[in-house]
Each structure stands twice: as C-alpha cells, then as structure tokens.
Amino acid sequence: MMTVEKILLEFDPEIKNLLPALKKISAGFGYISQNDAQKLAEYFSVPLSRVFETASFYDEIKTKKQPDLVIQVCSSVNCAVSKSFEIVSKIEDYFKIKAGDEFDQKVRLEVMSCLGQCGEGPVVVVNDKVYTNVTKSSVAGVLEEWA
Amino acid sequence: MNNTKIITKHWGRINPLKIEDYVAIGGYKALKKYIRDMDAERAIGEIKKSGLCGRGGAGFPTGNKLEIVAEKNGTKYFICNLDESEPGTYKDRAIVDNNPHSLIEGIIISALIIGAKRAIIYINGRYIKQKEILEIAVEQAGKYNFLGKGIIGSCYDLGIEIFSGAGAYICGEETALINSIEGNRGEPKSRPPYPTDAGLFGKPTVINNAETIVNIPWIITNGGEKYADSGGEKLYILGGSVKKPGVYEGSVGITIRQAIEKMGGGLKKGKEFWFAQIGGASGRLILGNELDCVLDYDRVSAETPRRGVSIMPIGSGSILVIDKTVDIKDLLLSWTTFFRYESCGKCVPCREGTFRLWEIAKRMQDGEITERDQKAIPEIIWTLQNTTFCPLGKFAATAFSDVMEKKLI
Ligand SMILES: Cc1cc2nc3c(=O)[nH]c(=O)nc-3n(C[C@H](O)[C@H](O)[C@H](O)COP(=O)(O)O)c2cc1C
Ligand code: SF4
Ligand code: FES
User: Looking at this predicted complex, what is its ipTM?
Assistant: First the structure.
C-alpha cells in the first residue's frame, strides 16, 4: 500500500525535494492533509507553516479534499478565440453550477490557464484527462463519460 | 526570409527517443568540438559575435550572461527555463517533442562554458510527456558519456536534473523559478542581487530559455559570424484565425505580415483580419495598418536603427490573429482572468489591480459596466504599469490598455 512515509523515502531530505514530494503526495492522495504536512515538516526539518505556505501557492498541489469530479476549461486567449467561454456556459447549465464555486462536494468547474495545447483548443481537462478540440456540441459527450 | 534552418532542420525526420538518430545527423559534434578544440573564452567570443540574445522574452545578450558567470569561482549552476506558460506559446514544448537532444547538447555546452557541474531543467508541470522524453534523452546522453564523469575523456563532469513545476505562470520569471526549486512559494525576489551573482542556493547561476539554448551547438559548429549573418533564428507560433496554426522557424526581423502570410498561410477562408496579439497574453495588439512592423528585440533599435521601420518586441514569438467575428469582451475576460489568477499576490497593486480589471471585464460581459468603472480603468492600468514589483503587473495591463487606446471596444 502507498503511504506518505514510503513516498518520502524516495526523496533525500534536502529542501529542493520539498516541492516534488508535495506534488507526489498530493497526486497520490488527492490533497495534503494536516497530518501529511506535519510529516513533511519533520522529514525536511522545516516549520509546518513553511510546508503550507509552499503547498498553497501551487495549482497542482491541493490542501483540501477535492470533489469527485473536477472539470477545468482553458480560458486563455487562443482557447477563448475558439470559444471556450461557450463551453464554460454549457457545462454550467449541464450541472447547474457556476465556474469557480466551491459549494458542491461532488463536482467543480474551474477555468484554467493555458496548458500549451493552444493549437488544439478549446482544451478541457476532466480529473486530469485532457480533451482537445472540444466544441459546444461535443462537450456533453465528454461529460457523459464521467457521469 | 532565409532558408538556413537552425532549430527545426531535423524536426519530423529523427526519432526523438533515439540518440542514434541525432548522432547520425551530426549531433553532439559541437560538444566534441568544444571539448577538444575550444575553451570557455573562445566559445563566449563566438556566442557574443553571433548576437544571440534571450528567447525567454527579455532579449538579454546570451554571451554576456555566460561570461559573467564563467568568470566567477566556486559552485555554479546552469538552469534551462522550460516553464513555458505564456498563453499561446508552445515552442519550447515543440523543441522537446521534435529534437530533445539538440536541447541537451546545448545545455551541456552552456554548463561547461560557465564551469557548472550541475544543470537543471525546470519544466512546466503540465508537460508530462515532455518530461519523460527528456528523462530518456538524459539517460541516453549518459550512456554515451556526453554527461556524467569525465565527459568523453575530458576532465569535465556534469549531471542534469529535471525539476517539474507545479502550475504557476510566475515561476517562469527567473527569481521566482529559483524560489520554487528552493522549496519556497514561487514569488519573485528583489534584484540585485542578480542570479548571475547570487542565484540558486545563493550561487552564481545562468538561467536561459530552452529556445536560446538550442542555438548554441550550431554557433559552436558554424561560428558566431555566420549566425549573425542569418539575422538570428526564432520560433514563431501562429494561432487564431490563420489557415495553418503551428510552430515555425524564421529570421528575427521579419514583418508581422510576412509571419502571418508566409508561415500561417494567411487568414482562414471567409475571415477578415481585425488585429493580432504579439507575444502571448502579455503582448501588444497590432492593427491592420501596423502589420509592416518588424519583429525584433529592443537591442536592434539601439544598435542598428533602420530608418522608416518600426519595431515590435518579438516577446515569446507567438502571433495570435483575431478576426472580426471574435467578441472583444471574451478576450478581455480571458486576459484578465489569466492575470488575476496568475498574480502571485506578493504586491498590492498587482494583486488588487488584476482583480479589479477582471471584475470590470466580467461586468462588461454582463453588460453592466458603470461610469465609475470607465473612470477606474485608466487608473488601474497606470498603477499596474508603474508601481508593481515585477513585470507581470505590467504584462497584465498591456492588452487591456491597447484595447482602450486603439478603440477596439
Ligand atoms: C512573468 C514572467 C514570466 C516569464 N516566463 C518565462 C518562461 O516561461 N520561460 C522563459 O524562458 N522565460 C520566462 N521569463 C523570462 C525569465 O525571467 C528570464 O528572463 C529568461 O528565462 C532568461 O533566459 P533568456 O535570456 O534565454 O531569455 C518570464 C519573465 C516574467 C517576468
Ligand atoms: S507584480 Fe504581481 S506577480 Fe509580480 S510580484 Fe507583484 S503580485 Fe507578484
Ligand atoms: S490557450 Fe488554451 S491551451 Fe493554450
């Protein structure tokens, strides 16, 4: 079984490994819990506050439990030109939620920054799976895959 | 446009996962030449002669940067900046996808020139496949002893590590990038000291963009003068309403019109040009009557003034073409959403200014813009342009300011 202790042993306790370790634990367990953060602080010999300060800064590291379904739509310029905001509205209607709201425990919709797939936009990411060239009409099909 | 391709020459013709392919087309010959026939001083001389300057946006002369650190003693680091997260920009990703060993060879030579024993590639956390490609390339280069101890029989040692970012645009800024490797929040540090004096873990550090680095082997092999003659090569990323979006190589100094027509194949059928944005979300907006501006770095205007030609900063090299069917309000919302989200929050004018511009863009989209908003816009733009801690604050105002000035709304 994967444990935080086992993950930590993959890294030397040097400060340059703090961010890689945070990333790996967040990806493996969904987020960094208070308990995990304490273990990280001890392992890297830094204050607990430093662990949270660093963790909370980065998008890829979560400090709270995430909903089962996280949908992200790239809203950066190239995708916006190919109408990614229409896709945002479609998804808002589909789930009856608003982008950016954090009330729903099951599903969350976020707009995200460019991920370098601008030639194939609009880009939608569902639980880390990347969909390219999504259109207003094809988005429902994507969502149904996860329903 | 000239036809000597430097960066993209072998793209699509070699297998990026096979070092043998790269070696077969003359790869790693520049490294051998550097080790056997050259020293740091001569190599720096050639790079200076080439006129190569940073492709990460700021355009700092690469030879000078390498020289500053080469002259210092003790532990030093070389960092390849592959954080690439400017919207509309995916040229560094294309380098890795198509010819990763050309980048590795450039990193090795650059690191040896400055006397670093460790080099780090800081890669955008989203570039998962590219990280794997680079891991394979580093391992293969080690097997050929282009990396490791006593590189091809010399007394040089070098290791390359790959450090993956965790999703923050600001980490492409060099001091924020250093903070990030040091396990801190990715906020910019104040300068001086510059990274060349006190960089990673306080040691002298050269940070170069991936595209800057891939020019190095060619310059070592062919000489700086020949590179300067070509005017310098640049990757352009064409996007938006062009027929052929993608990454293309061209000379520095072509006009925007040439880039759109010759590389992008002109506008898509039935679309009418409205304006173009140069250099990603932080770039300027160019109207139809400005298309003959030359794309270049600021240095050119200082060194070789060309009469009657105006220069547009080339930035990341991205050219986004907007046609008349696009809703400007969508773009305003896109730009402001990006900067509001990516502002690191360290300084108030940027944190607040990006937030307020985003609120206004949102109200514009909902058709609820007030007179108070109208009055606030120029004030917020001024504050972002003049009072923020790092250039991100200025970037956040650029497009919005051009929309107002050029009356695009
Ligand atoms: C907000 C901001 C974001 C930046 N992002 C990048 C980036 O993603 N990649 C990059 O190479 N340089 C980026 N830079 C520029 C770097 O700070 C630095 O100038 C560059 O990496 C130096 O390499 P060069 O001399 O080869 O251009 C950014 C700068 C700022 C202010
Ligand atoms: S200008 Fe923005 S990104 Fe730069 S330090 Fe200030 S808050 Fe951070
Ligand atoms: S703008 Fe959406 S992936 Fe780049």
Answer: 0.96
